[in-house]
């Protein structure tokens, strides 16, 4: 009996030791603050404690606020464009990396990891210089006579989209690349030997089998874009503010913590619902195990 109990304890001890630190980090730094923010968002105006006087008035205010709704719609639109553009760029890149020679693959991986390691603020300043009225893009177009006057590209939605795509590419490429490496090359060779064109091999063989990696990249990119704050703050303008900037204004400027918490909770719930619907679509259409 003692040996059976020891074996049973051993089976539980290993998962607890392996998952314990991660679960503790998740609970104390994510779950607890989220629940605290949820209680804050339900606090009635003038209530002395987040535990009393619960009300949905801040969610009612959120639903009737035109600025919040415009910022939310803008965030959804920009996140969708960033995810789509990043996927269009990243899938061919990941496919090339999976089929390239080892030294070429290593060079691309090093470039991706360097991009991840570089400061987000430094990259945003780089785009500010590149897209400025006197930046290299405007000067080049002026030199070739493509434009008569410099184009205003910074402090716009387009600038935010470009910088967010640059930021998100590693998060899209790496999951797709990992999924492509797990696909046996013999499958593509067999399809080609049966007369399938290169495009059809990619469409009917590689794309469906790489769907778990594509799913992971899309989820990461969309979630990062929905919660982006620094990039739209530096490259956008008050007229192109995203929902994260509106929430930060409520916390830091207006000191309206319950209303800011309601905005954050709404953002989290909407993002979760969109990703849940996307997951169900991927499972239903592509029958992928995600």
Output the CATH homologous superfamily of the largest domain.
MetI-like
Quickly count the domains.
Answer: 2
Count of DSSP strands: 0
Q: Please work out how many helical segments DSSP would assign.
A: 13
Rg of Cα set = 24 Å
- N- and C-termini, Cα separation: 41 Å
Give a short account of the largest sheet: none
Globular, elongated, flat, extended or rod-shaped: what is the shape? globular
Low-confidence parts lasting 5 or more residues at pLDDT below 50?
none
The CATH class of the largest domain is Mainly Alpha
CATH architecture of the largest domain: Orthogonal Bundle
Helix-strand layout with pairing:
Layout: H1 2-41, H2 57-64, H3 66-99, H4 102-117, H5 120-131, H6 136-143, H7 157-181, H8 185-193, H9 198-209, H10 211-226, H11 230-235, H12 243-252, H13 257-285
Helix pairs in contact: 1-13, 2-13, 3-7, 3-10, 4-7, 5-7, 7-10, 8-9, 10-13, 12-13
Offer a few descriptive terms.
MetI-like fold; mainly alpha; 2 domains; 290 residues; 13 helices
Account of the protein in words:
The chain has 290 residues and is mostly helical. 78% of the residues lie in helices and 0% in strands. The chain contains 13 helices and no strands. It is globular and about 75 Å long. The two termini are 41 Å apart. The model has no long low-confidence stretch (mean pLDDT 88).
